[in-house]
């Protein structure tokens, strides 16, 4: 089985062996199926919440449901470590996070911050923490790993496209123009984060940076869209740079 640097092969568990075999035999179709399941789950949950519980925050409830499903799936498969939720002994090249950290934490500072109440700040922090876990575990954890046999470049690009497509569910809640712009930005973001996942061998920092990026983006005094465009362009350039300048030969692991 092909193993990329930073991500170990699937562990052997009897209860998931059949599913693992399917993933290995048809990586693209398997990743596409998981992407569609996630998309459908988000859409159905969003519509159901809007219809039956219109008083609730639909996006928040939707992502909570999806996050629970992802956590349950990781637990059932025994894939928490495979998804990157691993020990520090498996981390490497953490210096590569310096630029994404600057993009997420320093860029927004130049615009100051909008005043928000403590309750709203806590709510936003929780919401973006759930978002960070949900999107990273699904896209850079499960799907990216499943795509590994296709080769590093294709795995990164396809996972980034899926990540962009994942945001299409927001058409249910927001204006089309904003969602389309968000999808383009998500591709840039997803490409950089996918490369970092492969290079560093862990997903913990991606979850944290994802949360911080989204939170500070919406708290910054800068207009959200221009700031996000700048951040995404920088991340795209960085991701492409890492992808084509620090590629390593494939390692072939025996079953």
Which structural class is indicated by helix and strand composition? mainly alpha
Strand order of the largest sheet: 1-2
Topology pattern, helix = H, strand = E:
EHHHHHHHHHE
- What's the main sheet like? 2 strands, antiparallel
Report the β-strand fraction as a percent range. under 5%
* Total domain units: 1
Globally, the shape reads globular
Please explain how this structure is put together.
The protein is mostly helical and 255 residues long. It has helices spanning 17-25, 27-52, 58-77, 98-106, 118-146, 152-166, 176-200, 204-219, 224-245; strands spanning 2-3, 251-252. The protein has a two-stranded antiparallel sheet with strand order 1-2.
What order do the helices and strands come in, and which of them pair?
Elements: E1 2-3, H1 17-25, H2 27-52, H3 58-77, H4 98-106, H5 118-146, H6 152-166, H7 176-200, H8 204-219, H9 224-245, E2 251-252
Helix pairs in contact: 1-2, 2-3, 2-5, 2-6, 3-5, 4-8, 4-9, 5-6, 5-7, 5-8, 6-7, 7-9
In short:
With 255 residues, the protein is mainly α. It has nine helices and two strands.
Name some characteristics of this structure.
two-stranded antiparallel ribbon; 255 residues; mainly alpha; disordered C terminus
